[in-house]
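Now for today's protein:

——
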Amino acid sequence: MTKWWRIWAKSLGEKVGATDKQADSVAVIRTVWWLTHMATCLFIILNAIANHGWGLIGL
């Protein structure tokens, strides 16, 4: 799990913080922000499909 956490944290951006604990806290905040962003995008897409139909995206 630690290996995957480090890879994920690095994918979010550069390491911030003087200690690993601080860097992990920043990575958690960035992860929550990323999940919120992805959920928002999903809801925007679903709303567009619901209001305009599948033709909007070419299906």
Summary: The two ends are 39 Å apart (CA to CA). The chain has a mean pLDDT of 91.
